[in-house]
Amino acid sequence: MSVAVSEMFSRFTLHHTRALGRRLVHSKRTVLSGIQPTGIPHLGNYLGALSNWVKLQEASDPQDDLLFMIVGWHALTLPQNPKELAASRWDMLATLLAIGLDPKRSIIFHQDHNQDHLELGWLMNCLTPVGKLLRMTTWKSRIATSRNAEESDVDESLLNAGLLTYPSLQAADILVYRATHVPVGEDQTQHLELTRDLAEAFNRTCKSEHPLFPLPTLVDTPTRRILSLKDPTAKMSKSAPDVRSRILLTDTPSQIQAKIRGAVTDTTLGVTYDPINRPGAANLLSILAACTNEDVNTVATRYESTGHKELKADVAEAVVELLRKPQGEFSRIREERVYLVQVADEGARKAKELSSETMRHVRDRLGLC
């Protein structure tokens, strides 16, 4: 296990020492995270979440439950082309396998293959104050991104009920497996806080000898926020209108090189890491540091007396090399439909085993048994 992986997992490792003897006993963790199926994953997804899922898998204790889901129901909060969505769901599953997630170790599944999410989602709706949902920041940003508009220009009348209650369903995604640890990006912190609030509300309202839901902990994984190549004040996004703003996991080396060459920087001589005043250069340095697993300030010192041209060439080379193996695996796995169906079916079966037990207790405590 690498030092980086050990340090990351130790931040949310729960051990205690027995009263008798010195042997450490591991408290079982349930780790859960998800990704939307829409659009091909980009470099920000890979460096910000997906690669860390693989590290969590490698660092986990054998008795931990690891669940990684493709959240098809969440995708429906914005209009989708059915044929494209169907294809994207399988491509996303192939991507998760290509980057190194192992279906023999992790439960990899389509969220929409398990109806327990919807049932608990409705029950969470019945616990969630509308005022809290209206204070969520993500729904407005999603509409703005999809329409290439500023958040201040978004008309709230465009908000559909599904997008408004998105956080309640996300809470259900987590609580239906009684997840203890959730590795998510900083933009999802508000949703996890709501999940903890709803877990406490249920435990308080439906009292029993033992609380049903644990309060899930945010897993702070060592990731760098990868920003748009065309607007380095915004994060890299699958839904941004300008395709040159992101590097897709399926981009060819020539496409990657062209996008990096066209990345927004500045006219200041030399390269320094200054996210506030020089966000474009800082973003490229962050990408290079993430690809080479180095400290970004250490990387920046190598380019103090050079220009953006040299930096961009090195970033492009590092990204091409980073994606070489997962791209090859993706091309192979996406054609193995029988295998993909087998993985999806088995993942759904294992997920359902865990969620069914939770829902049995939920129904009993609510008087719905």
From TrEMBL:
Question: Which PROSITE patterns does the record associate with it?
Answer: AA_TRNA_LIGASE_I
Keywords on this record? Aminoacyl-tRNA synthetase, ATP-binding, Ligase, Nucleotide-binding, Protein biosynthesis
GO cellular component labels:
mitochondrial matrix
Instruction: Report which superkingdom the organism of origin falls in.
Output: Eukaryota
Q: Which InterPro entries match?
A: aa-tRNA-synth_I_CS (IPR001412), aa-tRNA-synth_Ic (IPR002305), Rossmann-like_a/b/a_fold (IPR014729), Trp-tRNA-ligase (IPR002306), Trp-tRNA-ligase_bac-type (IPR024109), Trp-tRNA_synthetase (IPR050203)
Provide the GO biological process annotations: mitochondrial tryptophanyl-tRNA aminoacylation
EC code: 6.1.1.2
**Gene Ontology molecular function, alphabetical:** ATP binding; tryptophan-tRNA ligase activity
Q: Which Gene3D superfamilies match?
A: HUPs, Tyrosyl-Transfer RNA Synthetase
Offer one Pfam family short name for this entry. tRNA-synt_1b
Where is the protein found, in the record's own terms? Mitochondrion
Q: What is its main location?
A: mitochondrion
Which reactions appear under catalytic activity for this entry? tRNA(Trp) + L-tryptophan + ATP = L-tryptophyl-tRNA(Trp) + AMP + diphosphate + H(+)
EC class of the enzyme, as a word = ligase
SUPFAM superfamilies reported for this sequence? Nucleotidylyl transferase
Give the family from UniProt: Belongs to the class-I aminoacyl-tRNA synthetase family.
Matching entries from HAMAP family are given as: Trp_tRNA_synth_B
From the Swiss-Prot or TrEMBL record, give the protein name. tryptophan--tRNA ligase
According to its UniProt entry, this protein's organism is Leucocoprinus leucothites
